[in-house]
Write a structure and sequence with these properties.
Elements lengths: L17 H7 L3 H30 L1
Length: 58
């Protein structure tokens, strides 16, 4: 899960920080695209974790 969070910024990579949003704003369409990308990445990660768990249960 560490690869999904930037240690320096303490938020998801490619997602603007709160400060960046406050200073520069953010396009709603762009933010939706980024969030959908993260949902997909996390869903794929969850599927892989479930496969590993199922394998360990056998």
């Amino acid at each position: 899960m560490c690869r999904y969070r930037s240690k320096a910024n303490k938020h998801l990579p490619e997602i603007p920080s709160e400060k960046e949003v406050q200073e520069s704003g953010v396009s709603l369409g762009e933010m939706n695209r980024l969030l959908l990308q993260k949902v997909e990445e996390l869903t794929l990660h969850l599927i892989e974790v479930k496969k590993e768990l199922d394998k360990l249960k056998k």
